[in-house]
Amino acid sequence: MTRPIDLYYSPTPNGWKVSIMLEECGLSYNTILINLKKGEQFDKDFLIINPNKKIPAITDYEGNDNPINIFESGAILLYLAEKTGKFIPNSKYERRLLIQWLFWQVGNLGPMGGQHSHFWNYAPTCEKKSYAAKRYANEYKKCLEVLEYQLYGKNYIINDYSIADIISWPWVLIAKSMGIALDPYPNIVKWRQRLKERDAVRRGVDLMRSKKG
Ligand SMILES: N[C@@H](CCC(=O)N[C@@H](CS)C(=O)NCC(=O)O)C(=O)O
């Protein structure tokens, strides 16, 4: 019997991307909590798994003696989608679109949301109204505008539900808790709710919820 996938995880938007995907695919996995507050992402054993010192990461023991370590949420989701054939379109045209939106998320929505979240949640009070704080809030909103436009007349980012949705959703889920109202983005509001109602998405977000650092 194949050993379950190891998921290196913390209950954060980047962690949820992978917990949601594993739940959606029905893959068996073993969760290893990386406590970011304690700095466990810098432990030397973890660097073998992810030299970039961040969660999420996985180890897949699939059918051979050389376990596969993967870091970066986009690479992990693509790997799992190709492994299972799920949440990835068949046509070449749609695959190109999918890859484009994966790159968009990891290069835009994720980092801008992450920086905005940092200023909103952790910056000293004197920095909260700084030029940098305003810039990241604004850049995050620009990403929401892009997504809003892409979702016009559609239920999902491509056509069917895919890893483009799974990777983007967690950074939209937390918008309100970062002081960003979603009222100006009605397509996003509907899409956010549509995904929230999926059992696997709920299970993914609830994984180790109490361990939020
Ligand atoms: N581009 C990475 C971002 C991962 C990331 O920023 N993870 C955060 C948690 S949400 C982290 O591990 N932060 C710890 C640190 O930077 O020390 C991905 O998409 O996987």
Task: Explain what this protein looks like in three dimensions.
- This protein has 213 residues and is α+β, with helices and mostly antiparallel strands.
- It has two domains: 5-86 and 201-211, Glutaredoxin; 92-198, Up-down Bundle (Glutathione S-transferase Yfyf (Class Pi), Chain A, domain 2), CATH 1.20.1050.10.
- It is 52% helix and 8% strand.
- The chain is built from eight helices and four strands.
- Strands 2-1-3-4 form a four-stranded mixed beta sheet, covered by helices on one side.
- A hairpin with a 7-residue loop joins β3 and β4 (68-71).
- 35% of the residues are buried.
- Residues 12-14, 36, 41, 53-56, 72-73, 106, 110, 114 line the site of glutathione.
Strand tally is 4
- Which percent band covers the strand fraction? 5-15%
- Count of helical regions: 8
Q: Radius of gyration over alpha carbons? A: 17 Å
Write down the domain tally. Answer: 2
What labels would you give this structure?
213 residues, alpha+beta, Glutaredoxin, Glutathione S-transferase Yfyf (Class Pi), Chain A, domain 2, 2 domains, 4-stranded mixed β-sheet, binds glutathione
